[in-house]
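Methods — Computational structure assignment.
A single polypeptide chain was analysed. Its primary sequence is given first, followed by the predicted tertiary structure written as structure tokens.
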Amino acid sequence: MVADSSGPVFLFTTSEPTAAQHTPRTPKVQVSRDDGRTWSAPRDLSGDIKAPAGPGDWFATGPGHGIQLTRGEHQGRLVVPVYFAVGDRQSVRLVYSDDHGASWRIGATATYDKSVLKLGEQTLVERTDGGILVIARNGVVPDQTSVHGLARATSSDGGESFDGDFRADDAVTAPPTHPALLRQRWDGGPYTRILLSAPATPKTGNNPVGMNVRSSFDEGTTWRHHDGAAGNAGIRIDADHAGYSDMTLAGNGAIGVLYEAGSARFRDVIRWNWFWESAIGLP
């Protein structure tokens, strides 16, 4: 994640030893202050964000981006999503920093039995009221033909707690996957706009088809086609197989999408696609 628009870049990773060692995954953070040309030494965050340490436990950061809050009493706060599993229970968590990344604290945490909600990779966006919309992969969906593979929740206190339980998100058409949210337009103009990228087809054969970008003009409550018409599949930017994705807003206003893709399998290559807002239409 990038702080203060053009400030330091924070890279969150986890080290994964060989299975024979039976040691936990270790979350770490590195910082670059020259646009990624050089990086600080990795700093272990296990104690700060309480990564589980059992031999069969799982902990992961990413693969998307964190956000910096720009509104309300928590303006300037850095918020990063992580997720982990202990036994038959899986959790999503937000970790945050109020001192520009010098220290990190545990924030909102939601834990469910894997048979109820199997929450994984999350994506975040700040709403115009200062709240946070969280959309997570929901791997509990057993049906390979399902396109309701995401779950959602919100936070109204800067990521310190969730407002309520996560719920399966029927407002967006997508298989269980890592999606990406991006604030494209704030209030103060004729409309607000949040974008969401993810495939829109079933995960048949664990190989979804197409990368789609959807638009929301009501802060993530509903999703629309590129021209504002009702429909939650959005516009397709790549017709090949596709999987995980992330998005960014370039300094010149272009929208960039980085995603897994391939003509035969969804993760054969990593592709970069960019376009102007005019390419996805106006409401």
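Note: The first strand starts at residue 9 and ends at 15.
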